[in-house]
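Please fill in the sequence for the structure shown.

STRUCTURE ENCODING:
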């Protein structure tokens, strides 16, 4: 199980599963919408009252990009019987990947609280059962939104992740999941219909997202040449579905702040209804939703 960050990402090249969001293919996303597109009430939210879990490599709590919003940190360890257990953790990041995701979420939903669930080790990998245990803990705690910029390709754990995704859905936790960056690689839980699956597009606007009516990957967000926070108070430029996913997670936090009783189904429907209008082939330009250039003040 690995974080969804390509080890040798080339600038300007989209990761796997992002093909529907290639510029030349964006017109294929055009569809007759069941709702009118308008600037939604929730877009002005800053994520007030919402808690977001980042299941990743940890979050560096004192990084300037986190804005002091990290309220708790736990980690998953394997006990003497090789079973995963959740214990309290320091606010550290052993890689930088989790801090990158947390920084994007904070930039777009600055009033949301953040909880770090560290499942990845220093090589940005972990056992799939550790990932599953961390996700199980998030649902147990009743945390309303979870960013999963990592995935498991284990067929042995398919059933367990499917059950976890369904449990999260019915217990009102929205799972926002990165698709794998590896071509042809299954990635769980991103392939399940009960989650919000995300891949990258190359628009530089952090608040432009597209809906793909032909899943498995449903949403495209900024994920190419993204400036992100990193370990040790640093920042880097990153490309990958990992960095597209927290853009959508932040939008989910805004929706949940405005509509605290919204279900995962309703959250996904709102995201789809307010996604950017794909460009027409004649112009090659997107007609953005009225809200796409706004950011919280």
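FILLED IN BY: designer on duty
SEQUENCE:
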């Amino acid at each position: 199980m690995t974080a969804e960050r390509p080890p040798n990402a080339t600038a300007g090249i989209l990761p796997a599963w992002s093909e529907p969001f290639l510029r030349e293919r964006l017109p294929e996303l055009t569809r007759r919408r069941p709702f009118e597109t308008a600037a939604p009430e929730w877009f002005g939210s800053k994520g007030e009252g919402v808690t977001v879990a980042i299941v990743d490599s940890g979050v560096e709590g004192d990084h300037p990009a986190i804005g002091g919003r990290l309220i708790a940190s736990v980690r998953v360890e394997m006990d003497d019987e090789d079973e995963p257990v959740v214990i309290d953790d320091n606010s550290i990041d052993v890689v930088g990947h989790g801090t990158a995701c947390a920084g994007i979420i904070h930039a777009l939903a600055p009033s949301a609280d953040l909880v770090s669930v560290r499942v990845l080790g220093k090589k940005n990998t972990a056992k799939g059962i550790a990932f599953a245990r961390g996700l199980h803990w998030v649902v147990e705690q009743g945390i309303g939104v979870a960013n999963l910029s990592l995935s498991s390709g284990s067929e042995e754990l398919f059933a367990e992740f499917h059950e976890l995704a369904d449990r999260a859905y019915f217990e009102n936790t929205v799972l926002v999941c990165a698709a794998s960056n590896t071509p042809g690689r299954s990635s769980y839980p991103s392939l399940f219909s009960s989650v919000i699956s995300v891949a990258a597009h190359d628009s530089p606007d952090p608040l432009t997202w597209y809906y793909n009516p032909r899943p498995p990957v449903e949403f495209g967000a900024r994920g190419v040449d993204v400036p992100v926070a990193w370990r040790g108070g640093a920042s880097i430029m990153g490309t990958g579905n990992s960095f597209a996913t927290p853009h959508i997670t932040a939008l989910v936090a805004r929706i949940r702040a405005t509509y605290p009783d919204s279900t995962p189904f309703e959250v996904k429907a709102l995201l789809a209804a307010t996604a950017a209008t794909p460009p027409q082939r004649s112009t090659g330009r997107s007609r953005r939703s009225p809200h796409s250039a706004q950011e919280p003040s």
